[in-house]
Amino acid sequence: MSSSKLVISWDEFHLHTRQLASQLKSIENITGIVAVTRGGIIPTGIITSELNIRLIDTVCVSSYDKNNQQAEINLLKYPNHDGDGWLFIEDLVDSGNTIRFLKQHFPKAIFACVYAKPNGVCQTDYFVEKVKQDSWIQLPWEI
């Protein structure tokens, strides 16, 4: 089976991220948002604006090697809390390994992704667009 390439434009990404923000408005008592770097940085900016949240943190993980192959997950920088009241934002959940790893460190966090593939969709609490597992998603900042 061959993989397909899904090219996402800035307009599509912005629309999908705003749709995700609309879903997240129903969550009560959000302390702040944690951007999962690097993919979560841009959607976090949009979501914090949409939800009028000013408290932003990052969790820095490395899960791909220099050839964009999945590798061992390394926690490079992390917030000093267990995730209670915090919303973690990613651009994409693929295999679910990164979020599964983060849930071990932040068991009370809520996880949201703009895009979700079937193998990882069960790891995220919120998402907007489901994409095929074999799709390579090219986000606008990667073009």
TrEMBL record:
Domain Phosphoribosyltransferase: 11-137
Keyword match Cell inner membrane: no
Assigned GO CC terms: cytosol
Entry's Gene Ontology molecular function annotations: hypoxanthine phosphoribosyltransferase activity; metal ion binding; xanthine phosphoribosyltransferase activity
Keyword field: Cell membrane, Glycosyltransferase, Magnesium, Membrane, Metal-binding, Purine salvage, Transferase
Pfam families, sorted: Pribosyltran (PF00156)
GO-annotated biological processes: GMP salvage; IMP salvage; purine ribonucleoside salvage; XMP salvage
Name of protein: Phosphoribosyltransferase domain-containing protein
The organism of origin for this protein: Catenovulum maritimum
